[in-house]
Design brief:
This is NAD(P)H-dependent oxidoreductase. InterPro entries: Flavodoxin_fold, Flavoprotein-like_sf, NAD(P)H_dehydrogenase_qn. Keywords: Oxidoreductase. Residues 1-149 form the Flavodoxin-like fold domain. The protein starts with a strand and ends with a helix. The chain has 7 helices and 7 strands; from the N terminus they run βαβαββαβαβααβα. The protein has one domain (2-199): 3-Layer(aba) Sandwich (Rossmann fold), CATH 3.40.50.360. The strands form 2 sheets. Strands 2-1-5-6-7 form a 5-stranded parallel beta sheet, with helices on both faces. The protein has 201 residues and is an alpha/beta fold. It has helices spanning 15-27, 39-42, 70-81, 98-107, 139-145, 147-157, 182-199, and strands at 2-7, 33-38, 55-57, 60-62, 84-90, 128-134, 167-174. β3 (55-57) and β4 (60-62) form a beta hairpin.
C-alpha cells in the first residue's frame, strides 16, 4: 500500500511534527510506502493563479490553462499513485493553515478532484483519506459547543465525497495541545499510531 502524507506546519519543534513522525513510522511497516509532502519545507506556492481558475463561458465551465502547472501536476500525480491520503495540520482561527488551503485550492482542481456533473475521476475512486489536526482549543468544549463538528464539516467532510469517490476514514482533532504535559502528549501519539495502523488492515 502507498500512503501520501501532506503536512503543513512551519515549526520543526511542533507537536504536529511529532504526529508526522509517528504517522510515517506507523504507515511504513511491512513494505508499505510512504511519501511525505511538507508544504512549508517545500515553500509550496499556495496562491491560485488567474489562469488556474474556472469561469463560465458560453454556458460551460472553462479555464485558460489546458493542463495544470508543473508544481500542481506533481501533487496530482502523487494523489493518483496513492491508496491512502493523510493530511496533518494545526487548526488556526478554526481553519486549516493558509498554505494547506492554498494546496487544496490549486491541487484539488475542477476536472481532477471534482466535476460539476458529479462524475468522479475513475483514478480517485475508492481511495481513502484521513485527517489529523491539533488545536489550542480545549477538546471538551469544542465537542460540546459543536466547534469540532463544524471544523470537520468544512475541512474534511465537504472535501471527500461521492463527487470524487474518495472515502473519508476519519478526522481526529486533538485539543489543548500547547497546555498538555508530556505524558498526555505521549498518549495522543500512541492513539495516532493505533488509529493509523488500523488503516493498514
Amino acid at each position: 500500500m502507498k500512503t501520501l502524507i501532506v503536512y503543513a506546519h512551519p515549526r520543526k519543534e511542533s507537536f504536529c511534527q511529532g504526529i508526522l513522525e509517528t504517522a510515517v513510522s506507523a504507515l511504513s511497516v511491512d513494505g508499505n510506502e510512504v511519501v511525505v509532502r511538507d508544504l512549508c519545507a517545500m515553500s509550496f506556492d499556495p496562491v491560485l493563479k488567474a489562469e488556474e481558475t474556472i469561469h463560465v463561458k458560453d454556458g460551460k465551465f472553462v479555464r485558460d490553462l489546458e493542463a495544470p502547472l508543473a508544481d500542481v501536476k506533481i501533487e496530482q500525480d502523487l494523489i493518483i499513485e496513492a491508496d491512502l491520503l493523510v493530511y496533518i495540520f494545526p487548526i488556526w482561527w478554526n481553519a486549516m493553515p493558509a498554505i494547506m488551503k492554498g494546496y487544496v485550492d490549486r491541487v484539488f482542481a475542477h476536472g481532477f478532484f471534482y466535476n460539476m456533473d458529479g462524475s468522479p475521476d475513475a483514478r480517485l475512486i475508492n481511495k481513502r483519506a484521513y485527517m489529523i489536526s491539533t488545536t489550542g482549543q480545549p477538546q471538551e468544549a469544542s465537542d460540546t459547543n459543536g466547534l469540532n463538528d463544524a471544523i470537520r464539516r468544512l475541512s474534511s467532510e465537504w472535501m471527500f465525497s461521492d463527487n470524487n469517490g474518495i472515502k473519508l476514514a476519519g478526522h481526529d482533532i486533538y485539543g489543548s495541545v500547547p497546555y498538555l504535559e508530556e505524558e498526555r502528549l505521549a498518549v495522543i501519539l500512541d492513539t495516532v499510531e493505533a488509529n493509523l495502523s488500523q488503516l493498514l488492515d
